[in-house]
Amino acid sequence: MPSYISMLSLYSQKVIYGLLFQAVAQTLLCFGRDPKHPGAEPGFYGILHTWSQTLTPHIHIHIIITAGGLTEDGVWKEKKHGKKFLFPVRALSEVFRGKFTEGLKKLYYDSELNIPDSMGEISTPEGFEKQISTLVKKSWKVYSEPPFSGPEEVVRYIGRYTHRTAVSDSRIRRFENGEVTFSYRDGREKDPEKKYKEMTLSSEEFIRRFLYHILPSGYHRIRNFGFLSNGRKHQNIEIIRKQLPDAEETVISGDDEDEGITCPVCGKGRMRTFLSADMHGRLRISGPDISVTVHRDTS
Q: What confidence category does residue 259 fall into, taking pLDDT thresholds of 50, 70 and 90?
């Protein structure tokens, strides 16, 4: 979300966070059901995060979505052949922005937003509409990427986010003289050697920033949507599984010489992948009798 909305959310957590989930779900379901895309209802789940690396408000949702969907007739349809992404990213951003701002307007005119004195410029309808116009002119970010290292790694990756706190104990370097020093990753730093830095805050400021990210009591930060919605996901998954090839029946034929790709240099030898690295720097080594994951120390 734009930083302005992140700050406003501090005073209206439930309604802003709820609107974010709603706008995300409406956008993805709209694209999924569009005949130009899969033309079917996708299944996805989201995890709410409210922090940046330096603990400032930065609300966003991590989404895992299926590469296809279920039609009203119970038929599984996959994404259009040849497309890198399930949906066009720029179009997603524009539709998401429109749905969120319209929802924000409704919250405002229904008097459901708590507006602090520091944001007094939106206390009048004229000031609010002016701020909305400013937000609409900005480019809202929807970051999308294809799955990496197979479905198991996708689940493992998102699993690390499910119960993560704003700052882990391992990132806290020192606490002395009434100050807290913690490490953070600078996303703007291009030099990988300088990407990890340290920040020192007074204990009061550190606690203040940490408290930003304590959710309202009973609030669910993990939610399911589409055909994975609670109450019908088990039935839908069973329907889809019956239409997909059985993994146990999949047969890979041929001897070792038939595996891999032809060497582009000599044109004769066969090249096989034995090592790969994901976006987090984890190295995965594989071979006929090898399955090892190596974790690099980036501290």
A: low
With a pLDDT cut of 70, the percent of the chain lying above it is 84
pLDDT digits (tens, 9 = 90+) for 224-252: 999 999 888 999 999 999 998 764 443 43
Q: What's the CA gap between 98 and 109, in Å, rounded? A: 17
Could you give the CA distance from residue 295 to residue 277 in angstroms, rounded to a whole number?
A: 10
| Residue 12: φ, ψ to 5° | -145, 55
Spatial separation of the C-alpha atoms in residues 125 and 138, rounded to whole Å: 20
94: pLDDT confidence band, cut at 50, 70 and 90?
Answer: very high
Q: Which amino acid is at 56?
A: T
- Which DSSP category does 269 fall into? S
Beta strands in the chain (DSSP E): 43-51, 57-65, 68-70, 76-78, 172-176, 179-185, 196-202, 222-226, 261-262, 270-271, 275-277, 283-287, 290-294
Domain coordinates in residue numbering, the chain: 3-162+212-243, 167-204, 254-294
Q: How many beta carbons lie within 10 A of that of residue 248, not counting itself? A: 6
CA–CA dist 74, 299 (Å, integer): 49
The tokens of 190 are what? 């291009």
The closest of 146, 142, 153, 196 to 173, measured between CA atoms, is 196
Q: CA-CA-CA-CA torsion for 232, 237, 240, 241, nearest 10 degrees?
A: -150
Distances (CA, A) of 242 to 88, 98, 99, 113, 236: 29, 38, 35, 47, 10
- The more confident residue out of 103 and 141 is 103
Q: Which residue has the tokens 């296809």?
A: 68
Tokens of 129: 């509409």
pTM confidence score: 0.77
Distance, in Å, from the CA atom of 17 to the CA atom of 118, rounded to the nearest integer, reads 20
